[in-house]
Each structure stands twice: as C-alpha cells, then as structure tokens.
Amino acid sequence: MEDLKKIIDVNLNSEMYYKNMSNSSSDKWRLNYHLEPPFGLLNDPNGLAYFKGEYYIFYQWNPYKCEHKDKHWALVKTKDFMHYSIPKAVLAPDEWYDKDGCYSGSAIAIEDKLELFYTGNVRDDKGNREAYQCRASLNQDGELVKKGPVVDKLPKGYTAHFRDPYIFEKDGKYYFVLGAQLEEKIGRALLYSSEDLNKWSFEGEIKTDYENFGYMWECPSLFNLDGKDILIFSPQGLESEEFRYQNIYQSGYIIGKFDFETLNFKHGEFRELDLGKDFYAPQVFKDDKNRTIMIGWMGMPEEEDKYPTKELGWLHCLTMPRELILKDDIIYQVPLKEFENYRIKLLEDTKNIICNEWNTDALETNSYELLLEIDRLEAKKIELRFLEGKDEYSSLVFNFEEGSGFLDNNKLINGVNSVRRFKFNNDKIKVHMFVDKSAVEIFLQDGETVISSRVYPEEGSTGLRILAENNVNIKDLKLWNLGEMLYE
Ligand code: FRU
C-alpha cells in the first residue's frame, strides 16, 4: 500500500511539474529537445519500441534522489519526437525479486501486446547481489503487469553481475542477450532462447575474439543491419588511451556474422559509438519505417557530484534518437529527420566565404543546430568556439597536420573539466552540431564520429565563432534556432 501511494505521488508530482513548467522555477540548464527527468536521476534508456503507432521510450529513473538507487522504469510516449506524454513511473522496485531496483531491459511488440524484460536487482541480508530476469506485460489499459522472474538461476561459472536482457525474435524463436561476468571477473554476453516467452533456456556464451576485454559487459543489443550482425555492448574496465576508452566505461560494437547454432561471432575490431564524455548504455530498436534507431544515456556514473543540476534536484538526460546507417562496416549515426521540425528560423545561411574568422551576432540562444562544411585550404588548424561568454567558452579543434581533433570543455566555468580526442582524415570537415542548453551532440563527417557532452554555460554565453590560422573556405554554413518539445 505504502509503495503504491509513493508511486501515485511521484506521478502526480511529475504531472504538476509539466503543467507548471512555463511559470515554474525551472533552471537555465533544463533541456528543450532532449528527454530529461522532471526530478531525480535518469540513466539507461530501456524498452525502446515502436508500438501501436507510438514510440515507447522507457528509462531508468530514481524519482526520489539524484543517486543510483531505487531504480524504477519511467515511460514517455511520442508519435513524432516533438509531442510527448508526461513521464510516469511504470515499474517500481516493490516485489521480492526486484526490491533493490528494476534494472535495465528491453521490449518486444508482439501483435497487440508489448512485452518487457528487465532485471530484478536484489541484495540479501549480507549485501550479496542476486539478479532475476523478469517479465512484465502492458495490458489493454496501458498499465504494466509484472509477471515475475523467467530466469531465476545463474548459469554455472558466472557471477550475479547478470543483467540487462535485450529481447528479439528470429525465425520464430525468441532470444535475449544478457550482460554478464565470468567468475574470473571478465565480461561476457550470454544468449537465452524461448518458444513462448515464459520458459527460457541458456544457450551459452556469445563467442567473440574479445576473451579478456573488461570485467563486465553491460547493456548488450544484438541486431542485424543490412545483412550484418552487430553486437553493441558497454564494457567496464578498459584502460584509457589517448584516443580510445577516454571515459571510465565505454560503449561500442563489433560487427560481422553471428552463428546462432555454434554461437560463434566472426567480427572486426570493437569500435566506440561516441567519443564524448557523456554517453553510455545505448539501446537499439527498429521502427515501422524499418529504421534502426539508437538512444543512449547522455551521462556517465562518474564525477556526478560535479554536475551542477544535481543540487537542483535533477540529473542526466537521454541522447537524441539517432538512425544507424552502415557504410563499409562502420556505423554512421544520424539524428532523426523528425528533429528538423524543431527548426524555428534559419539565422545564418552562408556559402563559400574565404576567411580566417567568422562569427555570428544572430544567436541569442543556446538551443540551435549548426551545419558546417569547411575546406581547410592552407589552414593547419580550425577552431569552432561556442558557448562563448565573458569568461568562458567551449572549443572544438581540428588539427589537420596531426589528423586529430578534440572537444575541450576546460574553459567552461561549470561542470566537469574534460578534453575528448578523436581522429579524422580529410581536408574537408563536416560538423553537424546540436546545442541544447546543457547538452551538446556533435556529429562529424556525416556521423562517422559522434561526441556527446553535457555543458553548463552561464546565462548569455551564446557566442559562436570559427577561428583559423590561415584562410579557410566556409563552403556551407547553416544555423537554426530550435524550439522545444511539448508534454501533454
Ligand atoms: C548501466 C547499468 C545497467 C543496470 C542499470 C541500473 O548504466 O549499470 O547495467 O541495469 O544501469 O540502473
């Protein structure tokens, strides 16, 4: 009873938050077109699905505190990525098998039903971890009904770091892939199968060349794109290098051919999906237009005390949904076309200007989209400065001689200091950048490289300019201010 009352209150408070949004004391870092929690902490996207004409987006949510505890599933629905239902807590940790958290999982639409699978996280009296893979179904009234554990035992040889079922159907059979850890503390992905969604059999480990690649693999997604099998996962425990694994945890993929009989995965090298400091635990789903769409958690369980919104009672957001496109075995990420509907006004539209400095006066907002193509001509370096104010800025730098660049947030007053590096190989650069008050997503070279970062500029730090040592050709520059999503 008490649990039920708590959830009713959470959902009423959420409703109140959105109803009063226009005259509430909402802070300057609240987002315009990224999904954020009304209060509390958000992490992984969960249960992504296209169902009965709507996109279902669930996420990990602690509605009580900005802490990694009490994980619920929140749900928002949208038809067009502009109008959203008010976030509601729909799964709460109130059963013996999920009492310490309804952890991450996924959804599958089967005819007129949406079936969800998630991990029930349980700690026993001594603090030991237990993990149950659980099922819940959406009923006709749109409520989630828990069906309890479908896998309640650990397979031999693995620890209780056993979670995040990603369900899919293949040739009339259901499967889920799970993140797991060998007793030797090495990350793995496991495969289960089922005929009826209730009885699940352990098929075994997905056999990759990555025998020893981090101590735990979280949040796997296994899917097929243009005839290629892809396993996305989030390994923990890789050592940082200059251009790779720059965060505490990573998210990336291997691509090739997966054999469902032998569980052998023939694949190429692990490649990270996003080199920014705020990206983790992405999940993939397909929609009715056969688009393969990925959403990630735009956050990281690191240095969270330095994220200034924590004190304001809310923390983290999701990335924009990105369509995945395969070219030469590389995943390119492109923001969904629907986001063009956020464009209010084309503020700048420039072609072929040769210069070594460009700036705009037209920008009085940090809610915008920039499309930029530059030919470097003789320039060795190009810098894009943005969020520029009296005493701060953020910069994206391209060094053509070294074939590398970086996003530097060290000159910003608030938030985590960071530099994130990337490589590129071209005399022409293409930048597609979305700035949303405290979230920046940068798609480079048509989405070959992506960098996502939370930033917390001061009021009025909206300066945007391009600086180069020598003349460059700004072949194309378009700048739109962007509007905001609506909750109803
Ligand atoms: C990844 C993760 C998952 C887990 C969830 C708990 O960020 O640790 O493995 O299910 O978050 O919130």
Automatic annotation (TrEMBL):
<dbReference type="GO" id="GO:0005985">
    <property type="term" value="P:sucrose metabolic process"/>
</dbReference>
<keyword id="KW-0119">Carbohydrate metabolism</keyword>
<dbReference type="GO" id="GO:0004564">
    <property type="term" value="F:beta-fructofuranosidase activity"/>
</dbReference>
<dbReference type="Pfam" id="PF08244">
    <property type="entry name" value="Glyco_hydro_32C"/>
</dbReference>
<dbReference type="InterPro" id="IPR018053">
    <property type="entry name" value="Glyco_hydro_32_AS"/>
</dbReference>
<keyword id="KW-0378">Hydrolase</keyword>
<dbReference type="GO" id="GO:0005737">
    <property type="term" value="C:cytoplasm"/>
</dbReference>
<keyword id="KW-0963">Cytoplasm</keyword>
<comment type="function">
    <text>Enables the bacterium to metabolize sucrose as a sole carbon source.</text>
</comment>
<dbReference type="InterPro" id="IPR013320">
    <property type="entry name" value="ConA-like_dom_sf"/>
</dbReference>
<feature type="domain" description="Glycosyl hydrolase family 32 C-terminal">
    <location>
        <begin position="362"/>
        <end position="481"/>
    </location>
</feature>
<dbReference type="Pfam" id="PF00251">
    <property type="entry name" value="Glyco_hydro_32N"/>
</dbReference>
<keyword id="KW-0326">Glycosidase</keyword>
<dbReference type="InterPro" id="IPR013189">
    <property type="entry name" value="Glyco_hydro_32_C"/>
</dbReference>
<dbReference type="InterPro" id="IPR006232">
    <property type="entry name" value="Suc6P_hydrolase"/>
</dbReference>
<protein>
    <recommendedName>
        <fullName>Sucrose-6-phosphate hydrolase</fullName>
        <ecNumber>3.2.1.26</ecNumber>
    </recommendedName>
</protein>
<comment type="pathway">
    <text>Glycan biosynthesis; sucrose metabolism.</text>
</comment>
<feature type="domain" description="Glycosyl hydrolase family 32 N-terminal">
    <location>
        <begin position="34"/>
        <end position="335"/>
    </location>
</feature>
<comment type="similarity">
    <text>Belongs to the glycosyl hydrolase 32 family.</text>
</comment>
<dbReference type="InterPro" id="IPR051214">
    <property type="entry name" value="GH32_Enzymes"/>
</dbReference>
<dbReference type="InterPro" id="IPR001362">
    <property type="entry name" value="Glyco_hydro_32"/>
</dbReference>
<dbReference type="InterPro" id="IPR013148">
    <property type="entry name" value="Glyco_hydro_32_N"/>
</dbReference>
<dbReference type="InterPro" id="IPR023296">
    <property type="entry name" value="Glyco_hydro_beta-prop_sf"/>
</dbReference>
